[in-house]
């Protein structure tokens, strides 16, 4: 999707909120929109999502399916959660059965199961925000636009946001997200767009590879399945090690220390992925390596 010399003002002869904005985002990319309060971040996102039309210039190659999550979900509507989401799913192009399935999946996934029959105005702010996220995901979006998505969400629900972003990127979609709270440190590799004085500038890429190493601990019995799933998702599994894991005392506490590291493929090595957990040793290319971590 490309913003091509886009200008926006809300009123004829009003001041220009955005001037000559040129920007482009492609499949699998995420851009974080930064800038002071009132500078025009929401305006830019609404232009990208197609909620606003440019006063001048144009937005081209916008994907057919756009998920738009406004900063505040408009909860002042006389529908129940299920009724609202089903209507949104039909608008997004689902058949009646498809809509039912999509709504069942996303209400469950976002922990909205208990609120299906609750009317929107009766929802707490955080729950209403989750309904906003659900409606944006009902049809896999080619472009997901999130305006301050962490606002109003509790700690557990905040974890959902990077998860949904990753899902869209993995599906070949693009993501635009504004954030003034610094939550986006959880999105390594994102492009940074800054809005100031009506214009948009992009921070030059650092030149570092957009790769991150993620350490994770899983129950021993689930190692083979986890490795298989990670590989199926296109991640590169560097190494699997035996691990005495005790949860850190705080969420930011020190990483646990391994008590032993079996030789890869040797006695004590984990069963190989993709072989149905049959107890074979890890001996495929890509498993061995110096760092006991998982990357994508
Ligand atoms: N519907 C509207 N009518 C008139 N002016 C508007 C409208 N929406 C936004 N504005 C003005 O446009 C400017 C940019 O607003 P915008 O909401 O895009 O900024 P923002 O960077 O997203 O702010 P925040 O961080 O506070 O959400 C502001 O001066 C705002 O008052």
Automatic annotation (TrEMBL):
It comes from Micromonospora mangrovi. The keyword Nucleus does not apply. Residues 242-296 are annotated as: Disordered. Pfam families: ABC_tran (PF00005). Residues 1-222 form the ABC transporter domain. It comes from the Bacteria. The keyword Nucleotide-binding applies. Transmembrane segments: none annotated. Residues 248-257 have a biased composition (Pro residues). This is ATP-binding cassette domain-containing protein. One of its GO terms (molecular function) is ATP binding. PANTHER family: ABC TRANSPORTER ATP-BINDING PROTEIN ALBC-RELATED. Keywords: ATP-binding, Nucleotide-binding, Transport. InterPro entries: AAA+_ATPase (IPR003593), ABC_transporter-like_ATP-bd (IPR003439), ABC_Transporter_VariousFunc (IPR051782), P-loop_NTPase (IPR027417).
């Amino acid at each position: 999707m490309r913003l091509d010399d886009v200008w926006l003002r809300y009123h004829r002869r009003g001041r220009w909120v955005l001037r000559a904005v040129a920007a482009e985002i492609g499949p699998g990319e995420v851009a974080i929109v930064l800038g002071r309060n009132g500078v025009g971040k929401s305006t830019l996102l609404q232009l990208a999502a197609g909620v606003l039309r440019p006063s001048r210039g144009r937005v081209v190659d916008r994907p057919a399916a756009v998920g738009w999550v406004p900063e505040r979900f408009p909860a002042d509507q006389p529908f129940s959660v299920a009724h609202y989401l089903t209507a949104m799913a039909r608008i997004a192009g689902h058949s009646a059965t498809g809509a039912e399935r999509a709504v069942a999946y996303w209400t469950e996934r976002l922990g909205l199961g208990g609120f299906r029959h609750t009317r929107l105005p009766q929802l707490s702010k955080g729950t209403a925000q989750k309904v906003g996220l659900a409606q944006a995901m009902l049809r896999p979006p080619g472009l997901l636009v999130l305006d301050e998505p962490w606002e109003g969400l509790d700690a557990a629900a905040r974890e959902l946001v990077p998860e949904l972003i990753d899902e869209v990127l993995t599906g070949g979609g693009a993501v635009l997200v504004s954030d003034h709270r610094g939550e986006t440190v959880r999105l390594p590799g994102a492009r940074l767009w800054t809005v100031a004085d009506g214009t948009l500038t992009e921070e030059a890429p650092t030149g570092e590879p957009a790769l991150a190493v993620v350490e994770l601990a899983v129950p021993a019995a689930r190692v083979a399945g986890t490795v298989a799933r990670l590989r199926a998702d296109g991640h590169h599994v560097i190494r699997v090690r035996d691990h005495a894991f005790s949860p850190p005392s705080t969420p930011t506490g020190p990483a646990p220390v391994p008590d032993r590291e079996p030789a890869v493929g040797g006695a004590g090595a984990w069963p190989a992925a993709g072989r149905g957990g049959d107890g074979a040793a890890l001996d495929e290319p890509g498993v061995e390596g110096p760092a006991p971590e998982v990357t994508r």
